[in-house]
Amino acid sequence: MARFLISRLLQGIVVVFITMVATFALLKAAPGGPYQKERATTPENEARLREEYGLDQPLHVQFLRVLSKAMSGTLKCDKFKSQLVGDIIRNSFPISAAIGLPALLIAIGLGVPAGALAALRPGSLEDRSAMLMSTLGICAPSLVLGPLIALVFGLKLNWFNVAGWYDADDWVLPSLTLGLIYAAYVARLTRGGLRETLAQEFIRTARAKGAGEGAVVFRHALKLASLPLLNFLGPAAAGLLTGSFVTETVFQIPGLGQHFVSAAINRDYALASATAAFYAAMIVGFNLLVDIIQAAINPRIGLKS
Predict the structure, then answer these.
(1) What is the mean pLDDT of the chain?
(2) To which H or E segment does residue 228 belong?
(3) DSSP 121-146
(4) How far apart are CA 242 and CA 278, in angstroms?
(5) Tell me, what DSSP letter sits at residue 82?
(6) What Rg, from alpha-carbon coordinates, does the chain have?
(7) Residue in 188, 177, 193 with CA at minimum distance from that of residue 133
(8) Beta-strand (E) ranges in 164-298?
(9) Which residue, 5, 43, 79, 120, has fewest beta-carbon neighbours within 10 Å?
(10) Are 248 and 258 in contact (CB under 8 A)?
């Protein structure tokens, strides 16, 4: 167990480092810079700013500066030097998590029962209806579903604000948008995993021994059927908790996703690299958690480095 955790921790550090390097290199390769869109900035003044903040130095020197300051917690934005990157992540991540956690619960709460019902009644009206709705959910992007939900519950019914982060219930519409989309994936994975598990030999053996259908499904089949779903929920949970770029933009939520988008647009190399590394660290952490849960559910998997 300890060897596995150490091995995965070292692998995770490498993944986060590569993600940070790739993000920094891609932004540097893109045209533009953090000061080129300033109206009052002349080429001479821009050159002075680049020299003052070290943006005229070789790429490896700039990246090492970003990396060292990020590790020490003193990394500042390239666009707005008065803002610390750590403060931006610290203030915006709870907002993204306040949207992502309910969305994850909605996805599991709707997707798992719908997929299980469809698996237990293959070819029935319930099965076809659940798979039709899940297909629609997968095909409907948040850029389309979000405004539709805002139109119905915000503009027509006036139940919630359609944009901004002002009231205690402003998480509802973006969470519902993300939850419905991810519920579609959860439903299809649950149905597929449960159908495959119910066709295996040990399920027929359990039924031959007189086990009830409820015991067969919940005690034997659902555990094994949840393994593919867990593989999906690991990175999905990381993506939901760290913020959906499109959904936060649609509903004007000041979460971490919007900061990543603005960092890419403004060519803020420090902020974009740090948020990408934070996102990668979340994915690594959730994947590690998924591996541990899978080993607990099915001991045959084991924890091997």
Answers:
(1) 80
(2) helix 222-241
(3) STTSHHHHHHHHHHHHHHHS-HHHHH
(4) 8
(5) T
(6) 23
(7) 188
(8) none
(9) 43
(10) yes
Cβ atoms of 24 and 63 within 8 Å: the answer is: yes
For the four alpha carbons of 266, 268, 269 and 275, in that order, the dihedral sign comes to negative
The residue type found at 80 is F
Beta bridge partners of residue 76, listed in sequence order: 84
Q: What are phi and psi of 266, to 5 degrees?
A: -85, 0
pLDDT exceeds cutoff 80 at 96? yes
Length of the chain: 305
Backbone torsions φ then ψ of 69, nearest 5 degrees: -70, -30
The residues near 74 (Cβ < 8 Å, ≥ 6 apart) are: 84
Nearest to 85 by CA among 211, 253, 268: 268
Structure confidence by residue, pLDDT tens digits, 214-257? 667 776 677 777 788 888 888 888 888 876 778 888 888 888 88
Tell which wins on pLDDT, 27 or 149.
149
The pLDDT assigned to 106 comes to 92
Tokens 């700013």 belong to 49
Both tokens of 290, joined, read: 């998924």
Q: Is 284 helix (H, G, I), strand (E, B) or coil?
A: helix
CA dist., res. 94 & res. 260, Å (int): 15
> Residue 40 to residues 31, 91, 94, 252: CA-CA distances in angstroms?
20, 30, 36, 28
- Round to whole Å and give the CA distance between 12 and 284: 6
Q: Work out whether the CA dihedral 82, 88, 89, 90 comes out positive or negative.
A: positive
